[in-house]
Write a structure and sequence with these properties.
Layout: E1 7-8, H1 13-19, E2 49-55, H2 61-75, E3 79-86, H3 88-99, E4 107-110, H4 117-121, H5 140-143, E5 157-169, H6 170-175, H7 184-196, E6 200-202, H8 212-224, H9 226-235, H10 243-254, H11 268-276, E7 280-286, H12 290-296, E8 302-305, E9 320-330, H13 337-346, H14 350-359, H15 374-385, E10 387-389, H16 391-395, H17 403-416, H18 421-433
Parallel strand pairs: 1-3, 2-3, 2-4, 6-7, 9-10
Antiparallel strand pairs: 4-9, 5-7, 5-8, 5-9
Length: about 450
Amino acid sequence: MQRRTVIATALSASLLLAACAPSTDAPDPGDEDTSSEQTADGGECAEEVTLRVWSWRTEDADTYNDVIFPAFEEANPCISVDFQAFVNTEYNQILQTGLTGSDGPDIAQVRSYGLLQPLVEGGNLVALDDIVPEVAEFDETILAGAKGREDGATYGVPFASQTLQMYYNTAIFEENGLEEPTTWEEFVALNESLAEAGVTPMAVGGLDAWMMPIVHDILGSAQYGGSEFEQAILAGDTEFTDQAYVDSLQTVVDLQQYMPENVVGVSYTESQVLFTTEQAAMFPGGSFELGFFQAENPEMELGVFQVPPPPGSALDQAVTPAYADGNWGLSANSTHQEEAETLIQWLATQEFGQMVANDLKQFSPVPGVSFDEPLMQEMWDLYQESPAPYLQLVNFRYGDPTGTDLIGAGVQELFLGDKEPAQVAQDVQAGLSEWFTPGQ
């Protein structure tokens, strides 16, 4: 069985639509030769079916093609998987078009929380509560990102959780006599030491706005209050103009001097390169970076730490923000519903979850999965000890404008000197007030 990967790059509006159609060498189920295919018990396949699976994680394509889906195909020889990965910033539009047509995916990675809702409301996905009853055993906080907001039904099998923390290059730290900071003063001092040594302290790319809420929460979640602030903002007991939240935005500005020069002109990819080529000592990012970092520079030894809060913060201890990254959804338009159900059931198994942990270096939410990678275990332990939500993604993507878009643009404006933190906080409050009602 042949599998191919399509990685979409920069697309014009017309190409976005074209990307949703199968390529000229796509398997045609009507032309497939099933004469040599056999079932697991040696019988002939009544039909060989190819399932289209779409994803936004281009960096995982080789692992899905070479390791993960071959394991499924071996156990299900009448089903093959055509895995296609698209550039993440273009994926939402491609997926929306694909799910409404006949040439879209049978199963697709779909976003969590607020960005899942348009697909649910549009009838694009099949509810999975009866098809994959195992999802009921998943952690409730993770499963919340897979549910329809109105009907409470489950529309996805969660595939990964992500934690947010500061990575660092242990060799650079050792060369400069530095250790993981336990206080804000130590954190500032190590940034100063690295800058004086001619090393970029933090690899941050401000050109890609989607990374800015991540950077903000890594640096400022404990300062504005983490889970406590989340509860207060949802209940209507405070607003984003709260001084602690404004101060957390000011902290990002204060630390800009330790980021690459002209940070808003540095792309996310360029920031990754700065870190993996060991030109920068630290990288504020998600657990989703680990596999990529290790693949790009296998010799680089990594450590992680939680950024300690500044004096006067709402919390007196560091926290690890986290979120449910996404889900596997079953297309309501799939012409191979039975086979697609077989695959999505397998995506909820411990076998698949363990491959996600071992081969993709991702936190699989499947119960019973263990993390053999020591750094993964450390990140997970830090989260368990002092958890916090990735606030804008978890709670404020249910309307337009989204919280992540507002903070993304706001932090860019801070870096450019176009606005003050209090103005950005007011923009966030005003934007979210267009659709968010506290206490509901």
